[in-house]
Amino acid sequence: MKNFSDVIKNQRRIEFRKANQAGRDLLKGCYYLLLKNEDKLTDKQSGKLNNLLSENQNLNVLYLMKEQLQALWKNTEVVVMKRELEQWCVMADQTNMTYLKTFARSMRKNMNGICSYAKHQLTSARIEAGNVSIGLIRK
């Protein structure tokens, strides 16, 4: 999901450069709205996000793709997760967004490791926390 947030950031920059002044005003301050989960948005933020998504097709597609990607992590069967991830990648390939297509290629390349999460429900977070603790002890 962190890598997908980079896709959103890069695409938002592209959209900002293409936009006129009114579009730029709309895009200002929207990066974290695009990353934030819908259930955590305030009414004001939700209104601004809906306005942005209705005005910008590419960001709307990215936001919907983000929601679908997050839903993949709820799978508990590897086969189902692989099938849904492949469908997600096909949809990403059908867009005209370079960063999204590159991300989909990366997802396909690492599909076995990603989909093993469905079976084991483990991430590298504990290992990273241990590495941080070791680093602090060394200091």
Summary of the model, kept short:
The chain is built from 9 helices and no strands.
Structure report:
It contains nine helices and no strands. The chain has one domain. The model has no long low-confidence stretch (mean pLDDT 88). With 139 residues, the protein is mainly alpha-helical.
Name its key features:
mainly alpha
β-strand number? 0
Radius of gyration equals 17 Å
Uncertain segments are none
Mean pLDDT across every amino acid position: 88
How many discrete structural domains? 1
> Which oligomeric form is depicted?
single chain
| Number of helices, where a helix is a run of at least 4 consecutive DSSP H or I residues | 9
Structural class: mainly alpha
Sheet having the most strands:
none
Shape: globular
- Helix share bin: over 70%
Tell me the distance between the termini.
31 Å
Query: What fraction of residues sit in β-strands?
Result: under 5%
Order of helices and strands: HHHHHHHHH
